[in-house]
Prior knowledge:
- By secondary structure, the chain is of the alpha+beta class.
- It has a single domain, classed as Gcn5-related N-acetyltransferase (GNAT) (Aminopeptidase).
- It has seven helices and seven strands.
- The protein has helices spanning 2-11, 22-30, 34-41, 47-56, 102-117, 131-139, 162-195, and strands spanning 15-16, 63-68, 74-82, 86-93, 121-127, 143-147, 150-156.
- A seven-stranded mixed beta sheet has the order 1-2-3-4-5-7-6, sandwiched between helices.
- The longest helix is centred in the C-terminal third of the chain and has 34 residues, at 162-195.
- It is globular.
Amino acid sequence: MERSxxxxxxxxxxxxxxxxxxxxxxxxxxxxxxxxRRLRFGAALGDAPVRHxxxxxxxxxxxxxxxxxxxxxxxxxxxxxxxxxxxxLGVSVLEGFRGRGIGxxxxxxxxxxxxxxxxxxxxxxxxxxxxxxxxxxRREGMDIVxxxxxADAWLRLPPADAGSHFGEVFAQRVALFDxxxxxxxxxxRRLAAALTPGTASRAxxx
Length: 206
């Protein structure tokens, strides 16, 4: 299990998100199809409930992690909410970017944070028809209990140690470096587009 999670951590930069990025989170969830929202939240939420969910995230108590593309769009998001005994994980990945290891990388990052919080377990609740999450839970050796079309997956966590704390600091620094590079490239692209002669004043279709 630990070997598998280390593999995911090495592959994809995962950055912890800030409260100022609520608009980007909202855009991410709105980009999910109705069926994908149902699989993520357990119900086909409309735009207003999604906005309410994003607005209520307590960044001081929970943690939110994201995978960004070169245009700084959130391709995948993990919300890790903690209680006294365990942390609960919710994961979403945009259609077209699944099957690339994003879900596994987010699980690995959530695992590290929950472990460093001192949680005894990481918990995921999903519909049994959520094939992607069910595959991920089975692949990572989570204990799964199913009933009435729903599934609860549990992953027992070892105590935090120096390695887990360092691993999380290192992962965030790598992700911040990746974010800085992508921000510079995206900014350069926008500047180049703005300076291209005629693009600002040219009428559509000409």
